[in-house]
Each structure stands twice: as C-alpha cells, then as structure tokens.
Amino acid sequence: MKKMKHCDESGQILLLAAFAIGFMIVISTVMLNNIIYASNMASESSNDINHFEISNIAQITQDASNAAYYNATTGNQFENDVYFNYLETYSQEISTLYAHRGFSLSLGNGTLNDAYFTKNGLITGRSNWTIIDNIDQTNKFTIEMEDTSKLSNSSDPFEIHAINQSGVPIWKMKLYDDGSNINVSVDDQTYPIGASNNSINLSIIYNDPVFHFATSTTGETYRIDYFNSSNAMGLYSITGTLADGRDFTRERYKVINTTISIASSKNSINVSLPITVP
C-alpha cells in the first residue's frame, strides 16, 4: 500500500514537473517572439526616416555652408560662384552617402539674401537672443547695414546689450531712424551717423571714445544680447576671448533657404530651413 502511495506521489510530481516545463517552454517562446519582434521593429525603425535624421542633415548642411563661406572668402572678397560650387559638391556627396543606406536625398539651395539680426536670420526669427556668453574680452565688434530701411523709430529701436553674470546690463546701444537721420544712442548720448536709408558701418571697439564698449566691459564676464533684432538687417562680426581662455568668432553675412527632401520605401519628408552664412 505504501509502495502504491509512493508511486502515486512520484507520478504527481512528474506530472507537475511536466506541466512546469511545458509552461516554461510556452513563456520562453512568447518572450523569444517578443524579442524577435522588437528587434525587427527597431531594425525597421533605424532604416526609416525620423526627426533625428532631419536634424542631423540640417546640422551637417549648416557646417557645410560655413565651410563653403570661408572657402569662398578671401579678405573682404566673397566669391559667390565658389560658395555655390562647394555646396553643389557637398549635395552630391551626401546624396550618395544616403543612397547606400536606402534613402533618396536631395538638397535645393535658394539664393543668398541679406540676413536679419534675428537668431535664424529671418524676419520671423527670434528677435531677443544671446549672441555669445561667458566673454572675457571683445577684440572686434563691427556692424554693417547696406539696407537700413528696416530700422524702426526711437520707440522700437534695435538694441545691443552687454550683460554681466549677475544679469545686470553694463552697456547698451540703441540704433534707430528718426525719419531724417540714423541715430546711435549710448549712455543716454545720441549721435547721428548718417542720413535715413543710407548704409552704415559701425566699428564699436575701434570707436571706444564714442561708444565706451571696452571701457564699460573691462574686468567683467558678460554676454552680448540682441533685442528687437527683426528691426535690423545686415552683417555683424564679433571676435574675442572667453573667460576660459578660448578664442571665439560670431559673424553673420547672409542667409539662404535650403530645401531638404528625403524619402525611403515607406515615407518621405520635405522641409525648408534657413541656413545662416556663415
């Protein structure tokens, strides 16, 4: 009787073990299928277009535009043909690169246009923004405006501020058109610098006896901000040294509207982006 009971218990244990093994096999199969499915989805996703891809192309194109600008500039001379030839070569190379990944990519470059002083160079761009932060010394600061018709009056001037690390403005400049003259206002002193709608060329550091920029910022760590910059169009160039000892350059010459078209077997994306030069 005991032997029979022992056999029954052994049989029950074997049956439970079989069920356990079967259950584990089912679970393992489901998990394996999920892993394979997730892996396939990830693989398919990595081979398709996403917003990160567009961001990468935009950044690479901006870098290529900067390189094209410096390649086409000798002294104060800018060679328009050299710039666009450089971009055409870049466009062909990046299209070939993406073709190997199964994408169709094309870049369409518009014409070079005068840039607003906004963050992206367009009139609709961010008007109040920081050009460069953590400055120890500014060596050159020039502004050139061929077209001054965008300047507003004294109630809505284009402004440049130097702001220290405590957030306190230590220098301000206002640039506006009063209907007769283009005026610069610094330290509550106003100076006519040209007739309305005439081009202007300002060298803020060189003319420190008038503009007091170097005098006001000496011994400070500061940033340079633009305000109401959609009211100004032209070129700016700023060079100097940061607080950590590195040299910096910030400049804007033109803006170009670039169309990026990319397609895969599943979808396509077309975007138009402003590319600043440089």
TrEMBL record:
Residue spans crossing the bilayer: 12-37
Keywords assigned: Membrane, Transmembrane, Transmembrane helix
Record-given protein name: Uncharacterized protein
